[in-house]
Structures are given as structure tokens and as C-alpha cells.
């Protein structure tokens, strides 16, 4: 999903996605559920990545997960 200031959030291997591009997400809301997709998967999991202007960044620098 594209965000302001060149940020992109990426969710991989999810079983389902609950939000669409442009949706407002509040703390505690479900964005995606774990899945078991991919060639080398070893079990249910979900990858979350945050990119800034084409480079991966630490999500904790942008999101308060507490």
C-alpha cells in the first residue's frame, strides 16, 4: 500500500487482506491474516515490510507498535 512521503507497506504470505489501498487504518485494526503461501514456506506466517523511496527501512522508526 502506498502512503505519504514515499512510504510503501508490503504484506506477503497473507491468507487474507482486510484493507484496500486508501483505507484509513487505526491502531488495533486487522490489516491481514497469516497464511501459508509461497514455495519455501514452513508454516503459517505473515511478512510485513516498510519501504521509503525504494529502500527497506525499519518499521519501528515510523510506527509505534506498543
How does the SSE layout of this entry go?
Blueprint: E1 7-12, E2 14-17, E3 32-34, E4 47-52, E5 55-57
Antiparallel strand pairs: 1-4, 2-3, 4-5
Q: N-to-C SSE series? A: EEEEE
Mind telling me the C-alpha Rg?
A: 13 Å
β-sheet strand percentage:
25-35%
Using the 3D structure, state the CATH architecture.
Answer: Distorted Sandwich
- Biggest pleated sheet: 3 strands, antiparallel
- Order of strands across the main sheet: 1-4-5
Q: What structural class is derived from the secondary structure elements?
A: mainly beta
What sort of overall outline do the alpha carbons produce when their principal axes are compared? globular
Q: Mean pLDDT score, rounded?
A: 86
Q: Give the domain tally.
A: 1
How many E strands? 5
Looking at CATH, the homologous superfamily is Glucose Permease (Domain IIA)
Low-confidence stretches: none
Percent in helix: under 10%
The name of the CATH topology is: Glucose Permease (Domain IIA)
Number of helices in the DSSP assignment: 0
Instruction: Using the coordinates above, name the CATH class.
Output: Mainly Beta
Distance linking N and C termini: 22 Å
